[in-house]
Amino acid sequence: MDQKPLSSLEYYDLQSDSYDQMISWPSRIATEGVFFKKLVNDYKLKSSLDVGCSTGFQVIMFRRLGLDAVGIDSSPRMIEKARANSVTCGVTVEFILGDFLAMSKRFSEGFDIITFLGDTSSVLKSNIEIKKTFQEIYKCLNPGGLFVLQTRNYDHILKNHLRFIPPTFSRNGSEETLFFRLLDYGPKSVNLNLVKYHWRENRWETTVQTTAIYPHFKKELEKPLKSLGFSKISFYRNFNFEDYDPNGQDLIIVAEKKGVLKGRTFSARSEKPKKETALPKTTNPKVSKAKVSLQKVTRTVRKRGRPPKGSR
Fold this sequence. Notes:
Blueprint: H1 8-15, H2 19-22, H3 25-43, E1 47-51, H4 57-64, E2 68-73, H5 76-89, E3 94-97, E4 111-116, H6 127-140, E5 141-152, H7 154-159, E6 164-172, E7 175-185, E8 190-200, E9 203-213, H8 218-228, E10 232-236, E11 250-256
Helix pairs in contact: 3-4, 6-8
């Protein structure tokens, strides 16, 4: 498509008003909530940081799972939207406007789990940026903490030159919006095009917004994790803990930092975790559904970040 690409910051600032219409948050949180509830219970997690938190619903999910939850994003308008969503949901969490490459300077305490969800890694332009970002995440993790990354499976997408992402739809009263996303392939990057058809006042309005994304293969994400010293790295195809599929749509990585989390107990006979507390490898685990969307949390959470003045 002949559309001048916006910077990722410009693109996501523009998406902030309609982002929650494009994403089906209830179904997404229901699925992801089961996955993260199991990790929270198995690893006795107490705190979380969502990197690239967008409009904040995953941070709200973590708070409702009982964690001291923080979100960080480089888009001012996404952060504004996230704070408004937390007020609407009646949940007290912290949202920080900040740079991924300077996170370790922003927090006075570490986190038990750090997430990098929703294909956020595709804004990283090179393997150097990947390594620097992962280094920051590693520094911000407590010993024994978890790093969870979710992205599209670009090994499959690029191999087959796939262009179309399934469309989504939303309705607000008499107004309707259709969202179509498609990829254009260039020599050094891929352009992500978002076409919005908005029906109001008996006519369609169309807008097109484009930004460059930087797809990364599985091995490009795995290599820096190993070099940083993550002791255990697992790969999944979805949030049901099913083993990674080279032909699947998504790639989910769970990496464990060396050490032991405070509060996590082990068998008296061994310093190693019991087998049932390790990351699941079954393709059909029996996990109960997380009730993360119906509870209202009212207690105040302790501030973990130290954002500079004027950033909030």
